[in-house]
Amino acid sequence: MRYSLKQLAVFDAVADSGSVSQAAEKLSLTQSATSMSLAQLEKMLGHPLFERQGKMMTLTHWGMWLRPKAKKLLQDAQQIEYGFHGQHLLSGEIKLGASQTPAEHLVPDLISIIDNDFPEIRIKLGVQSTDSIINGVLDYQYDLGIIEGRCDDNRIAQEVWCRDHLTVIAASHHPFAQCKQVSLAQLEQAKWVLREHGSGTRKIFDSSIHHLISDLDVWREYEHVPVLRSMVANGPYLTCLPYLDVEQFIEQGQLVTLNVPELNMERTLSFIWRIDMVENPLAECLKREGLRMMKSKPNVL
């Protein structure tokens, strides 16, 4: 074989950052050495791996084909190095992306388990909307994602972690709070504040209600759950959020769950990863420990 692991590492770093200079900084190389290494790899393989657009680099179809294979070779090389240096094979960094609800309520416990049982694994966590996590996994920004709801992209593999449900909530002083049941007509008259489009919560809510109410009065849309909780607790609004996000405030009497018989908003929280990525032992460890964690918490969701 004429190419080297160093050249593949350069290719991978440029693909991750879209920049030769950033790749050089990441690998502690000079920019000229990084450019030369990449040029040599492209010459040896006989195909351009990037399209140059000013200082930015975008993958060609050959580069996209090579990327998961290069990552696998580099991953195997790292495991070999760990083995011969006496390090635990479950060592190194994994990039985990999680949407807001699992990131706030479940991922901290998972990280604590990993820190305790596998101290040589370092978890780099990113918290974004479900759509952003899916895009991050597709773009190799994350090795493993945790999303709310389903992903129908055929490039993504998915495994259910656990289940939860969304609930319509109001302040304890809201006129609907004393109703045994709330009708669709009442929901249509209400003022709503909701999660932004692209969030898993908003997708589930929209898909559940769109065939029941054609014109919902949405006043505001926000990314952050605490903003929505506060607006509902102190104002005349309704919202729809995961029960995990409001359970404490319901128990304290600040918020109430509204009984809307027509709405069934159960959903899944799932691990996702690129379907063309070979088995990653760190990702497999996180999934395994996550599933074990949920078995020990039967009443969480």
Short description:
Helices cover 45% and strands 24% of the residues. It is α/β, with parallel strands linked by helices. Strand 7, helix 9 and strand 8 form a beta-alpha-beta unit.
Structure description:
With 301 residues, the chain is α/β, with parallel strands linked by helices. The protein folds into 2 domains: 5-84, Winged helix-like DNA-binding domain superfamily/Winged helix DNA-binding domain (Arc Repressor Mutant, subunit A), CATH 1.10.10.10; 93-301, 3-Layer(aba) Sandwich (D-Maltodextrin-Binding Protein, domain 2), CATH 3.40.190. It is 45% helix and 24% strand. It has helices at 5-17, 20-27, 31-45, 61-84, 100-105, 107-117, 130-138, 184-189, 200-209, 225-234, 243-251, 281-295; strands at residues 50-53, 56-59, 92-98, 121-127, 144-148, 156-171, 191-195, 218-222, 237-242, 255-257, 266-274. Strands 3, 4, 5, 6, 7, 8, 9, 10 and 11 form a 9-stranded mixed sheet that branches. The radius of gyration is 23 Å and the shape is elongated. The relative contact order is 0.14.
